[in-house]
Design brief:
By secondary structure, the chain is mainly α. The chain has 6 helices and no strands.
Length: about 160
């Protein structure tokens, strides 16, 4: 395997690290859900919506990784010649969503957990709780866009 191909695969791996933030965030929100579900005021559906929100960062990272692996031929079985500069470009394309995904997944899980406390104490506050958690999502989306634009700028073949 060439250095360029190795660097590109590493970029895909870094992008998938966003899933670490999602796993942590979903876990934090799940713990909070278990706590607030012990009362009678909060429905399972309300907590499930909030718990699912931090999972998106992992999806964004996976999409970037699949795009990279497809473009270089790892997925599909037709490996292409990837130069070292192209490999570096793919490596750097995986960094924004990988790094921001970890941080935003974790912090979105905390925001969702706080939202669960809110809905357990105040009727009709689910929309507010979702908005607070989704505000964190903005930065994951921005990182995804930057990673996608960087990926898209690499020309192969």
């Amino acid at each position: 395997m060439s250095l360029g191909l190795t660097l590109a695969v590493l970029g895909a791996a870094i992008a998938t690290i966003a899933g670490v933030g999602s796993a942590i965030g979903v876990g934090i929100a799940g713990e909070a859900a278990d706590g607030v579900m012990s009362g009678d005021k909060v429905s399972f559906g309300s907590t499930l919506v909030l718990q699912a929100l931090p999972g998106t960062q992992g999806i964004y990272g996976m999409v970037i990784a699949i795009l990279i692996l497809t473009k270089i031929g790892i997925l599909g079985g037709n490996l292409v010649n990837v130069s070292t500069p192209q490999g570096l470009a793919f490596l750097f394309a995986g960094v924004p969503i990988g790094v921001v995904g970890i941080v935003s997944g974790y912090t979105q899980g905390r925001a969702a957990a706080a939202g669960m406390q809110l809905i357990s104490k105040k009727d009709g506050a689910l929309g507010n709780a979702i908005i607070y958690a989704v505000m964190v999502e903005t930065y994951a989306i921005l990182a995804f866009i930057i990673s996608f634009l960087m990926y898209n700028g690499v020309q192969i073949g």
